[in-house]
Hints:
By secondary structure, the protein is α+β, with helices and mostly antiparallel strands. The chain has helices spanning about 20-30, 45-65, 65-70, 90-120; strands spanning about 1-10, 35, 75-80. The chain has one domain (about 1-120): Ribosomal Protein S5, domain 2, CATH 3.30.230. The protein has 4 helices and 3 strands; from the N terminus they run E-H-E-H-H-E-H. A 3-stranded mixed beta sheet has the order 1-3-2, with helices on one face. The radius of gyration is 18 Å and the shape is elongated. The N and C termini lie far apart (about 40 Å).
Amino acid sequence: MTVFYLRTVNEVAPGVNGVWTAESVRAHKKDGVRVGFTVSRALGGSVERNRMRRRTREAVRRHLQMLQETSFAVDVVINPKKSLLAAEFRLISQEIERAFRVIRKDCEVAEEKSGKQEARHG
């Protein structure tokens, strides 16, 4: 399984008269983590592809809280391999958890660095 991710910038539109409101910031923050799946036709027929997608989606659902509890926004794309069909669900879940752990750690380190740079310039 291949997992790609990209930290995204929270783009919140200002409210009336260009004033930023707490409601608009909170409304965007809840959508801070987005996960997508790419399952190509080369991996099999629609039954196999849908089964891969369902199994991966369930593993993501179980571990998504790891990323949602943070303050950063991130887009994650998961590209399963053919071997996912024969793999035990426990292994799929462990791989998703490991990927989310790496993403969380990388994003936290990046936030710490940006926070230090802002402190120097601010």
